Amino acid sequence: MTGIYDDPWAYELACSFRDVAPEAGVLLAWCARHREPDAAPVRTVLELAAGPAEHAREFARRGLAATALDLNAAMCGYAAKSAARDGVELDVVRDDMTTFDLGRRFDLVVTMLDSTSHLMTLDAFVAHLRRVAAHLAPGGLYIVEMSHPRDRLGDDGPSVGTAWTVERDGVHASVRWGGPDDRLDPVTQIADDRVTMTITETGTGGDAVRTIRDLVPYRFWTAGELDAAIRLAGGLTAVARYGDFGDVDLTAPEAWRMITVLRAAA
Length: 266
Fold this sequence. Notes:
Blueprint (H helix, E strand, L loop, with lengths): L7 H7 L5 H15 L9 E5 L5 H8 L3 E6 L2 H14 L3 E5 L11 E6 L10 H14 E12 L2 H4 L8 E7 L2 E7 L12 E14 L2 E14 L3 H11 L2 E7 L14 E8 L2
Parallel strand pairs: 1-2, 1-4, 2-3, 4-5
Antiparallel strand pairs: 5-11, 6-7, 7-8, 8-9, 10-11
């Protein structure tokens, strides 16, 4: 049985509630804000654990030299075909976010959609950050988007599921990612999140319905653990932290993400 990550079209549909173009604009605005004052405009960008590579494709549309890296072969193939369909140039690399070595440096590296939750140990996170530092141009930025800590440590208990619906091109999907029975292990900080996605496509012959079910291991990281990993890895300095794609403080009630901006050492 295939899971949600083996069906890139369905995964992209599930995440289509995201407004990728404005988010890419914010990421570039943060580059202008947090890079050195005399830094040249961003020209090269690398998206890690990119999946369908929606952000990398958007950067490519804006004229940047964009690279997308993912470990899943189906995701890499889908990203390459989507870029070709859209008429944008995108370098797609199949590799591991803890061991990759591309032989070149980037002005901006991003990891979106809490993909660092696939890093299950502190050693893996440190290895990941070291590879990022090795691929950043001097003064370049690494922007990493993670879930907000209250998702797992809020008043609703140690594990909070999320449900939503999306509509696109006549296709309706209902998604449930995690639930109250998906408990967070207090020692490993890992939860096996149950994922259910029901897709309804309306055609001339009636509705076609299919359901994807998966069990996705999720590693929860606190802000303090992230700071510790940054110190252990070396080569990166945290220069800002946001609670959303905008000037939302991490502690604000409306904050729903934990987005950290890291700068490469000179």
